[in-house]
């Protein structure tokens, strides 16, 4: 098996240079699916998570709900959505939102719950309203945790969006599925590689974001306490 | 979908044995890899906890592994392990589970406070004795937390194996899709979710038994 | 310690796997895989495979049960991929029997093949197949590729045959299975002078996409019950671009003996297009299990 040969075959295929099956177009489709799904999931999950984290109410419900949502198989949701809604954006967005929402919900709730109660009391003590405490004190402290949840969701969505191609949708999964159907390994491997590159790039991007989003006072605590004490 | 009802209940009633068989197949395909990954993660985690320099690159590799689209990995494995065989689906699932379990194992092994470790040393515990009686038990809640994530995602991912002929309950998705027949798809989604929840419940119970002090600590 | 655990786990997996196979034993869809092979590993097991669409699963089910009725040990690997994937598995011996369509198989082995009639196609196939593989008798039943449009499109553009598309193709999107474009694009250009606006891989949803209007022309199989259900119009093919597509068993010679060949040829002798479409209606519209439909057909024809 000549991996480098496969990759160069994939890159030199004229169909992958321009038109609907071009690498640029497939990457764009993939990013648009993933971006839309993340945005929608964030709009749904983050406010709810913040509220739950701040009030401490509904934690059990959220744990149960996210457990169920995590267990839903994406392939099943995609096939069902295509049967019910037809080939289109809805069919790919629904399963990806179901995938992205649980980690976002958990991360936003945990991030807020993780803020030091003394800090919150102090904020209330100097006369901030609950709303002000949540948004100006707790949220900045919770931001790294929230971004970490967003990173998990983004990587999962990017890797899983490939499954949508089975039901006739676009994105990088097209290469994987079409390559399998025509026993064209260069196409499959090239598509898979692009997905991995996207996922790794996403992780790096979030690593940077998390670094800059950490409030100066909490940045030092982010390093693992055990890192330096090797046994 | 014209005229096709969302659920044909009698189909489910007529196919209970069939659905049970697929669910059992699914459980094996999805969960044996998680167990194998656990068996691999503990020694690997020990090595990584001792040699943090080794852990960084290894963690990076597994981060990439986790991002690999499962379908692509199945396809690439077919020439080596065969089409529609269990190995083709189970090998990648083992890698995904290991990618989740290795960091949680390392975190767990590192979670013993230095003072506790020093006390054990002071009491004359050798490295193996310390490992067996202090460090491993302390890692149990972390391991189980990792197992919960790994098991649920493995159960969900195993369904994708149906696209290469071996996906347990995933067969219901492609069969239903091909025949414009939502009943098997819904039954499949429900059974996958049930299997995942049942596994999760078992792991929560296992934590209560194995690490009663940790309920609530490591979610 | 680790190896022993792995071994124990593997053993546990095998036991559970066997249990999984046998626990579905009372069900009409049960494959009986494994259990048959496990009892007597000395006798040769025929592995019947099928491509990933319901009719091929139904045909494979008919083959499998016809073989079992003659006492042949069978393992089923259904719905596992496209021809490109399955053919390699047959050559390597992982699969023994596949329900094939003679024209499509010839087109795969020799993309430049021009044979269109059943007998020509089979003659050409016998030349092109490698030494290890063989086709058995073809059935009268045919499931041809077609270019199909919705009733609306046919009325609006006045379409009856593929040739009528020539003036309009540039404005129309065409859909089919993922492999459709690489197989056919050049042939449409050469035979009918057609260049379509866009190719969409609509896969199993091609018929639905025609109705939605996502595509205007689609590659739908002639036995697809959705043609009737969704009021679609398959266009005539005056230049025989789509060749004969008789249902034909393709076998790995080393894996089938005289009994097995006779059982499969007996199926071919009875199967015709009307019969196959009726069976397909039961599978795809009435949602009956392919294996149950196959069993009925075999019984009716004295082969079960």
UniProtKB/TrEMBL annotation, chain A:
Q: Which UniProt keywords apply?
A: Membrane, Transmembrane, Transmembrane helix, Transport
**Keyword Cytoplasm set for record:** no
Q: According to its record, how does it sit in the membrane?
A: Multi-pass membrane protein
Ranges that cross the membrane: 31-52, 133-151, 157-177, 189-213
Q: What subcellular compartments does it reside in?
A: Cell membrane; Membrane
Chief subcellular location equals membrane
Pfam families with a match to the protein in the record: BPD_transp_1
Gene3D superfamilies to which the protein is assigned, alphabetical: MetI-like (1.10.3720.10)
- Annotated ABC transmembrane type-1 domain ranges read 27-206
What CDD domains does this protein's entry cite? TM_PBP2
Q: Which family does it belong to?
A: Belongs to the binding-protein-dependent transport system permease family.
Protein name in UniProt: Osmoprotectant transport system permease protein
Q: Which organism is it from?
A: Kitasatospora paracochleata
From TrEMBL, chain B:
Q: Which CDD domains match?
A: TM_PBP2 (cd06261)
The cross-references to InterPro entries, in alphabetical order and at most eight, read: ABC_transp_perm/SBD, MetI-like, MetI-like_sf
Would you identify the family this protein belongs to, as annotated? Belongs to the binding-protein-dependent transport system permease family.
The protein's name is Osmoprotectant transport system permease protein
Q: How does it sit in the membrane?
A: Multi-pass membrane protein
Its domain of life? Bacteria
Primary localization: membrane
Q: Which organism is it from?
A: Kitasatospora paracochleata
User: Is Transport tagged as a keyword?
Assistant: yes
One Pfam family assigned to this protein is BPD_transp_1
Q: Where is the ABC transmembrane type-1 domain?
A: 23-203
**Segments crossing the lipid bilayer:** 27-46, 58-78, 84-102, 139-165, 185-206
Keywords of the record, alphabetical order, are: Membrane, Transmembrane, Transmembrane helix, Transport
Q: Where in the cell is it found?
A: Cell membrane; Membrane
From TrEMBL, chain C:
Q: Which domain of life is it from?
A: Bacteria
Write the signal peptide boundaries: 1-20
- Pfam families on file: OpuAC
Q: Which residues form the ABC-type glycine betaine transport system substrate-binding domain?
A: 44-299
Keywords noted in UniProt: Signal
InterPro entries tied to this protein: ABC_Gly_betaine_transp_sub-bd (IPR007210)
Matching entries from Gene3D superfamilies are given as: Osmoprotection protein (prox), domain 2, Periplasmic binding protein-like II
| Stated name of the protein | Osmoprotectant transport system substrate-binding protein
What species is this protein from? Kitasatospora paracochleata
